[in-house]
Write a structure and sequence with these properties.
This protein has 183 residues and is α/β, with parallel strands linked by helices. It is built from 4 helices and 11 strands; from the N terminus they run βαββαβαβββββββα. The protein has one domain: Rossmann fold, CATH 3.40.50.880.
Length: 183
């Protein structure tokens, strides 16, 4: 059973627990830095910085070191801001900006997953910009640009995966986690 640590609000931690327990994973709400070494992967999620910011600030150096340990991370919604070059962790080669806070549901397609179609929930209009050529763009919208980015063991999405009915993003990410554990 994979152990997944989640940094975020209690509501989003519980939503991740619901989703990941169905996929036979144990979810640990990360409260202390030492717990980072007790999990197979980490999710950073939030609707605003206060959902994860204090922990990211104090754990940033340790999270950056974990790249060498093959740690797989998923950054969801506002949590994706922390992973970019303007964020606190600077682990992925993109910038992000927030344009508005109006909730929107948009139909999307992930062409790299056999053209899987789903409707994603955006609570904020977070945009990925200045995307480096070494990043994989798994999903892109004509108006919003890149939606899901991958760089090595890191995956970032700018929608609220926890409020999106289809869990394709989690399936893809868990495959990344299993692959990293085998190496």
């Amino acid at each position: 059973m994979l152990k997944v640590g989640v940094i975020g609000s209690d509501f989003l931690i519980n939503k991740n627990r619901e989703i990941l327990q169905e996929k036979n994973c144990q979810v640990i709400a990360l409260q202390e830095e030492k717990q980072l070494h007790q999990v197979d992967a980490v999710i950073i999620t939030g609707w605003q910085e206060k959902d994860y910011g204090a922990k990211i600030n104090s754990w940033a150096e340790e999270l950056r070191k974990m790249e060498k340990e093959n740690m797989v991370m998923l950054a969801i919604a506002h949590g994706s801001i922390a992973m970019g070059q303007k964020g606190r962790l600077k682990l992925m080669d993109y910038w992000s900006t927030t344009l508005s806070t109006a909730p929107v549901y948009l139909p999307l397609e992930i062409s790299s997953l056999d053209h899987v179609r789903f409707t994603a929930c955006f609570l904020q209009d977070i945009r990925f910009t200045h995307v480096a050529p070494n990043l994989g763009i798994l999903c892109c919208d004509k108006q919003r640009g890149p939606i899901i980015l991958r760089q090595g063991n890191y995956l970032a999405c700018n929608y609220v995966a926890e409020l999106t009915k289809k869990t394709y993003l989690y399936d893809y990410w868990l495959e990344m986690v299993l692959s990293a554990k085998m190496t």
